[in-house]
Design goal:
Strand content: 35-45%
Number of helices: 6
Radius of gyration: 19 Å
Largest sheet: 10 strands, antiparallel
Shape: globular
Helix content: 25-40%
CATH class: Alpha Beta
Number of domains: 1
Number of strands: 14
Low-confidence stretches: 1-15, 17-42
Order of helices and strands: EHEHHEEEEHHEEEEEEEEH
CATH architecture: 2-Layer Sandwich
Length: about 300
């Protein structure tokens, strides 16, 4: 297997996300009121997840897994910000302790070459938050409490349920609702393994083993489209979590690689904002919601 490349690439962006404000609400409302509704004819035709697309994404994952495994085995500098130059690293840690989220776009390469994924787009982001006063077990309690994920991560998660559990191995159901110009509802099943690396460290690996788009969600006649023969809003989703307890709290890092359809010609205005913005925004929300849930449990055990 070719050696995985570094995660710090020329096309990566270091993004500092501060707590949200509502100053832009009036402008956003005005924009929405003036924007014409999307015509029914603009809804994209169903797309098909092809074998060569799956093969390319699987190769991308093998290299990403290899890099993650090597970093976990190394046992130090586990957060992506640890590889930044010293001054930037200090600034990043200060921002985390102020309650901000640090994000970076990633791209795994094969011996320096871009991995092309025919008729699809790979979205790869990593983010980290700091939870003051938290222990590793506090974070694991929230992450593994899948029956309550619809409460912790609403409105992105509408329904959640543990399907089976064998120690630190989970099979879970999550129903996602994601909105950006268009709305997609997805029934998903995930295979998740947790690992305790040390008293103050843990990590997990999650694979979405089934993703089905829901048509007419919430209506009496709702139905699932055939996975891989749908609108292509989310075909694959792989997640790596890391938790490290130090500095009077817990650092929580989540890395997500997902696969969506390519943007159809002429429908970039409709599909583009969804497939390009949702992965980053969803990961940001997930980390913020995790911190909120952990802190909430500390106040109301």
């Amino acid at each position: 297997m070719p050696a995985p490349c570094s995660r710090h690439l020329t096309d990566s962006s270091d993004i500092n996300i501060r707590p949200r404000t509502h100053r832009a609400a009036p402008l956003l409302l005005a924009t929405l009121l003036l924007a014409p509704p999307a015509p029914a004819a603009a809804v994209p035709e169903p797309s098909e997840l092809k074998a060569n697309t799956v093969e390319a994404f699987d190769r991308y994952l093998r290299l990403t897994d290899a890099r993650n495994d090597a970093e976990i085995q190394r046992g130090s500098d586990l957060l992506w910000i640890d590889a930044l130059p010293e001054a930037q690293r200090r600034d990043a840690y200060s921002a985390l302790r102020r309650g901000e989220v640090k994000m970076q776009k990633l791209q795994t390469r094969d011996n320096g070459a871009t991995i092309k994924c025919p008729d699809a787009l790979i979205h790869h982001w990593v983010g980290v938050v700091f939870i003051p006063g938290a222990k590793v077990d506090d974070v694991l309690h929230i992450l593994q409490d899948y029956d309550q994920h619809a409460a912790y991560f609403a409105p992105d998660v509408e329904r959640s349920k543990i399907l089976s559990r064998d120690g630190d191995h989970f099979r879970v159901f999550l129903r996602f609702r994601r909105h950006k110009v268009i709305t997609a509802v997805l029934n998903t099943e995930h295979d998740v393994h947790y690992f305790r690396d040390a008293p103050a460290r843990a990590h997990s690996r999650s694979s979405a083993v089934r993703i089905a788009e829901v048509e007419d969600a919430g209506k009496p006649g709702e139905r699932e489209k055939t996975p891989g023969h749908d609108s292509g809003y989310l075909w694959r989703m792989e997640t790596w979590w890391r938790i490290e307890e130090r500095d009077g709290g817990a650092y929580v890092q989540s890395e997500v690689a997902s696969l969506t359809r390519d943007i159809p010609t002429g429908l970039g205005w409709l599909i583009g904002p969804f497939v390009n913005s949702i992965p980053k925004e969803t990961l940001t929300f997930t980390l913020e919601a995790t911190r909120k849930a952990v802190l909430g449990k500390q106040l109301h055990p």
